[in-house]
């Protein structure tokens, strides 16, 4: 229903919230740049709509702790309920060009949005190109990228609430790439 292409400095987050009113059950919302509001994605999920989004590398991803600690009264200690996913460790287990899916993750430090995460490690050529572009941005803006951020930029991370049967892992990335290529044509 909505396709919006705007200036590169305009993010998807604010636009995404404005078109949320028209989202119907079964719709698929694609956020190719990774700018979103977790409340919007949660509302889409509640309305039985689907989303696919790129995930910013500074977004926290958690797994449910299978062995949380409990207080004497039987309630779970909140700080032990989830385990932070180590993205560097996951990336280092992937070969360049390889994609991996982790089901049943939770996105966000506080909200814990349930989702599927698809992690794609870039090829060495893609990584060099990304680092070269980042160097130009750093020089232009007078900033220095942290080493950890630079290492993590060798991958793309996507999240979705669509089942693997509805949107197979190998199609998540290609949907975003196809959309981006069609918009830039």
Structure write-up:
The protein is an alpha+beta fold and 185 residues long. The chain has a domain of 123 residues. 34% of the residues lie in helices and 22% in strands. The chain is built from six helices and seven strands; from the N terminus they run αβαβββαββααβα. A seven-stranded mixed β-sheet has the order 1-2-7-6-5-3-4. Strand 5 and strand 6 form a beta hairpin. The longest helix is centred in the C-terminal third of the chain and has 18 residues. It starts with 11 loop residues before the first helix and ends with a helix. The mean pLDDT is 86.
Please report the total strand number as a whole number.
Answer: 7
- The coarse overall form would be globular
The average pLDDT score comes to 86
Strand content: 15-25%
Which strands sit side by side, in order, in the main sheet? 1-2-7-6-5-3-4
Instruction: Quickly count the helices.
Output: 6
Using the CA coordinates, give the radius of gyration.
Answer: 18 Å
One letter per element, helices H and strands E, the order comes to HEHEEEHEEHHEH
Unreliable spans: none
Helical/strand content category: alpha+beta
User: Span between N and C termini?
Assistant: 20 Å
Q: Mind summarizing the main beta sheet?
A: 7 strands, mixed
Helix content: 25-40%
Pfam family, one: DDE_Tnp_1
Protein name: Transposase IS4-like domain-containing protein
InterPro entries: RNaseH-like_sf, Transposase_11
Domain Transposase IS4-like: 6-159
Brief write-up:
The protein is α+β, with helices and mostly antiparallel strands and 185 residues long.
């Amino acid at each position: 229903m909505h396709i919006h292409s705007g200036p590169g400095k305009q993010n998807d987050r604010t636009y995404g919230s404005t078109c949320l009113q028209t989202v119907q059950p079964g719709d698929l919302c694609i956020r190719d740049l990774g700018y979103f509001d977790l409340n919007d994605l949660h509302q889409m999920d509640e309305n039985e709509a689907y989303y696919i989004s790129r995930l910013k590398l500074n977004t926290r991803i958690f797994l449910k702790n299978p062995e949380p600690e409990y207080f004497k009264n039987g309630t779970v200690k909140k700080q032990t309920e989830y385990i932070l996913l180590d993205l560097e460790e996951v990336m280092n287990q992937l070969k360049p060009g390889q994609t991996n899916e982790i089901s049943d993750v939770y996105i966000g430090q506080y909200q814990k949005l349930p989702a599927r995460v698809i992690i794609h490690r870039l090829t060495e050529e893609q990584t060099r190109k990304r680092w070269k572009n980042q160097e130009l941005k750093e020089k232009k803006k007078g900033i220095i990228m942290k080493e950890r951020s630079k290492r993590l930029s060798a991958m793309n991370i996507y999240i979705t609430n669509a089942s693997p049967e509805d949107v197979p892992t190998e199609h998540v990335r290609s949907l975003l790439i196809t959309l981006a290529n069609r918009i830039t044509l």
